[in-house]
Design goal:
The complex is a heterodimer of chains A (296) and B (318).
Chain A lengths: L18 H11 L1 H18 L1 H4 L31 H37 L1 H17 L2 H12 L3 H27 L3 H8 L4 H38 L10 H8 L8 H28 L6
Chain B lengths: L1 H28 L4 H6 L5 H10 L6 H13 L13 H36 L4 H15 L2 H15 L15 H35 L2 H8 L4 H23 L1 H14 L5 H10 L3 H29 L11
Helix pairs in contact in B: 1-13, 5-6, 5-8, 5-13, 6-8, 7-8, 7-11, 8-10, 8-11, 9-10, 10-13, 11-12, 12-13
The chains are: A mainly alpha (296), B mainly alpha (318).
Chain lengths: 296, 318
């Protein structure tokens, strides 16, 4: 028997958006976060392309144009040695962004496995050893810890990044451990265990993907703080050493010329502010996207 | 309350012990021989040996630590390598300026943060709320040392309303002291104000959803009375805790501000010690800073229990 044709359209199941698309849709709703991401992208591009985009070599001194105000051939003016401030700010972005990303990378590389193992196994090592060490590290104000470490390790960008990375590690351990403690009692962990999965497999294949969101959020916000910390160390003379261009150290030298060449102090500070603000906006957006529970 | 206090102080001891190990280890993190690094590679051999002996580096590590710790417990944090002054004395000498600056910073932060937090919470979702949120985020993003330099440029160098430096203790000249302290307090307080205003807003929004607020509104109480009299009092309680947790960040911020405005405080002491590689002073400052942070956190917990009768401290009978 032939089935009569109907005029109703064929029913097709509604396609659920894929996970990345769903996340993107959530992120896109936060206009400030999108703006932050866009500004950050421009800053990263400017830093990466500095050798091609910067109008001058940031180290070249030209005593014929010392302390020139912004305008003409030097959009951001020149410093006391006739170096182009715009070029130094663009090159400074490279070290500042690298310092932010690498120092937080160090903190995550050290803190993530410790927090994961600590929260997963708990017991003596977790509660008595690791948590008390993180308590102790967190009791020392972050900048004082970073300063003390930078003092004993000596000045330099690499050492500043290590010092800042160590300073951020306890916070990463705490966030990861807290997330793992919440996840380890979930049914999927019990199910994986029942299926014969070993501890390492459960930790890295099952638990880790479920805690990665809050870790990314924490890392992005920590990157903003790390950039300020690196600029602070450079300002004090413990980060990148002159004549290499860095936002913090440029501000230190600018302080001696505030009355006659204030532009030397404007631009590096504005660069730090815009970078940190864009990362904070992006971090807020990532939090709303990846971990809506954390939203206040 | 007393039981809780004793327990909390007891819990502080192992953490302070760990901080002491960290502070003590600083000298051993110096690459190479610390005495040579401190004195420079050109220093005569006898001077290096004398420095090694002064620092106790000629003794086994556990003995060095035990001696250092036992002296530290008695308040002896060693002597500065630069001027041979006792480290504890140097810290005490520098503390009043830092405590005053911390107080002024916190006062400024609260005076700005609470009204902004209340206003943005009361106008949730509106233009004022959006502007307040962006301003708070900007406040958190602005480097305090740059803000300090900009304020110095505007108010001290251009308008000549305030001095750039010239700290005098409050008891010597209250007026001059406050004139010098205004700019550093504003520079450090901007970030604190931003953070606390976000806490205030979040906390107030939470309280505004509570049943007692709905009841007050249902009774016809004017909205500003609901917010200011009923909700704000409750909303400020968690803000106290959150503000207390800011102390560690605040102390870090003061290190930079004191350097910019040449205020002879605790932060400046650390920075000077770092450049002089005065390891005993750095060790003492790290230990003291941790002690200060823990003491403030304890005080905040106690205040929290006093202002909120619902909180029963662990160890107390409900």
């Amino acid at each position: 028997m032939a089935v009569p044709a109907t005029s109703a359209p064929p029913i097709t199941p509604a396609r659920a958006p894929s996970v990345p698309r769903d996340l993107w849709l959530r992120f896109r709703k936060n206009k400030l976060a999108v703006a932050g991401a866009a500004v950050l992208a421009v800053l990263v591009l400017a830093a990466v392309l500095a050798p091609w985009l910067a109008p001058y070599n940031p180290l070249t001194q030209d005593y014929a144009v010392t302390l020139q105000p912004p305008g003409g051939g030097h959009w951001f003016g020149t410093d006391e040695l006739g170096r182009d401030v715009l070029s130094r700010v663009m090159y400074g972005a490279r070290s500042s962004l690298a310092a932010g990303v690498i120092s937080v990378g160090i903190a995550v590389a050290v803190g993530l496995p410790i927090g994961l193992i600590s929260g997963f196994y708990r017991g003596f090592w977790d509660e008595v050893v690791i948590m008390r060490i993180t308590d102790a590290l967190q009791a020392v104000p972050f900048l004082i810890l970073a300063l003390a470490l930078a003092a004993v390790l000596g000045p330099g960008l690499g050492k500043a990044m290590i010092a800042i990375g160590i300073g951020f590690t306890p916070a990463v351990i705490r966030v990861v451990r807290g997330q793992v403690l919440a996840q380890r009692e979930q049914d999927y962990v019990q199910a994986a265990r029942a299926l014969g999965a070993g501890d390492l497999r459960i930790m890295f294949r099952h638990v880790l993907p479920n805690i990665v969101g809050p870790v990314i959020v924490q890392a992005s916000l920590a990157t903003a703080s790390a950039i300020i910390a690196e600029a602070s160390l450079s300002y004090l003379g413990l980060g990148i050493q002159p004549p290499a261009p860095a936002w913090g150290s440029t501000l230190r030298f600018a302080q001696g010329y505030l009355t006659i060449a204030p532009w030397m102090a404007y631009w590096p500070g504005i660069a730090i502010f815009v970078t940190v603000m864009s990362i904070n906006l992006l971090g807020d957006g990532l939090r709303d996207m990846l971990d809506p529970k954390m939203k206040s | 309350m007393l039981t809780y206090l004793v327990r909390r102080v007891a819990l502080m001891i192992p953490i302070l012990l760990l901080v002491s190990i960290l502070a003590f280890s600083l000298i051993h993190l110096v690459p190479g021989d610390p005495a040579t690094v401190i004195l420079g590679p050109e220093a005569p051999r006898e001077t290096v040996e004398r420095m090694r002996k002064d620092l106790g580096l000629d003794r086994p590590l556990p003995v060095q630590y035990a001696a250092w710790l036992s002296a530290a417990v008695r308040g002896n944090l060693g002597r500065s390598l630069v001027d041979r002054q006792p480290v504890a004395g140097l810290i005490i000498q520098r503390l009043p300026a830092t405590l005053e600056l911390a107080f002024l910073t916190f006062l400024f932060a609260m005076l700005v943060a609470v009204p902004v937090g209340v206003y943005t919470a009361a106008r949730r979702g509106g233009a004022a709320d959006m502007a307040g949120s962006v301003l708070a985020l900007a406040g958190q993003s602005i480097p305090s040392f740059w803000l300090g330099i900009m304020l110095m440029m505007l108010f001290a160098l251009k308008l000549k309303w305030l001095p750039t430096s010239g700290y005098v203790p409050f008891w010597q000249s209250p007026k001059q002291n406050l004139m010098v302290m205004i700019l550093p307090a504003l520079a450090t307080g901007a970030r604190e104000a931003a953070v606390i205003s976000r806490y205030t807003r979040a906390s107030l929004l939470e309280v505004l959803r509570a049943d007692f607020v709905r009841t007050a509104r249902a009774k016809g109480v004017a909205e500003w009375i609901v917010v200011m009299r009923h909700a704000l009092r409750n909303a400020l309680i968690p803000v106290i805790t959150a503000s207390g947790l800011q102390v560690a960040a605040l102390i870090g911020g003061l290190v930079i501000t004191e350097t910019i405005f040449t205020i002879p405080g605790f932060g400046r002491l650390i920075v000077d010690a770092i450049f002089q590689r005065d390891i005993p002073v750095i060790q003492g400052c790290v230990l003291f800073a941790a002690f200060m942070v823990m003491a403030v956190n304890l005080a905040v917990d106690l205040i929290y229990s006093l202002v909120d009768p619902r909180i029963t401290l662990a160890g107390e009978r409900g």
